[in-house]
Write a structure and sequence with these properties.
By secondary structure, the chain is of the alpha/beta class. It is 37% helix and 17% strand. Strand 2 (51-54), helix 4 (58-63) and strand 3 (70-71) form a beta-alpha-beta unit.
Length: 163
């Protein structure tokens, strides 16, 4: 069901928002806003106070991710396993490419009593604002996995990777 929902989301968003679409309008139209947002600036200024979870798929995470982020995935997200590695003493920030998948994961964490935020605009917005992403070995990189060429229109700062 998650795969179908995500595929539908990608199809609709790419039809509705062509190359001339506006990033903020696209986000506003596809997210339900059921979880509090955190901006890239707020996260950057308070980075060490958060547990950071990457809800993208493993090939996306392996291309690059926010420094110190923990991979939890989306299609194979395991709530029970994830809960074992979190503390309620520290707020959580979840992210994906633009915020759709992370919103769904954040809803599950919120239901379990966690203080959770969805990174507004996801890793695309993070990188578009000039912030660093890293490889699995912790080296800074310009590469960001964009899912496909059409979806990559929302990444304006960084090297677009599809495989």
């Amino acid at each position: 069901m998650k795969k179908i929902l995500f595929a539908f989301f990608l199809l609709i968003s790419s039809i509705v928002f062509s190359q001339n679409g506006n990033f903020d309008e696209m986000i506003d139209s596809v997210l339900y806003k059921t979880v509090k947002f955190i901006t890239t600036d707020s996260l950057k200024n308070n980075y060490s106070t958060f547990q950071i979870l990457d809800t993208r798929e493993i090939k996306e995470f392996n291309t690059s991710h926010l420094d110190g982020a923990t991979y939890v995935g989306y299609n194979k997200f395991n709530l029970k396993e994830t809960l074992q590695n979190l503390t309620k003493d520290q707020p959580i920030v979840v992210y994906c490419s633009i915020g759709f998948r992370s919103e769904k994961i954040a809803e599950k964490l919120k239901k379990k009593g966690f203080n959770v935020y969805n990174l507004y605009g996801g890793i695309f917005q993070w990188k578009n604002c000039g912030n660093d992403v890293v490889t699995n070995s912790g080296e800074k990189t310009e590469q960001v996995h964009c899912f496909n060429e059409e979806w990559s229109q929302w990444l304006t700062n960084g090297e677009k990777i599809y495989e």
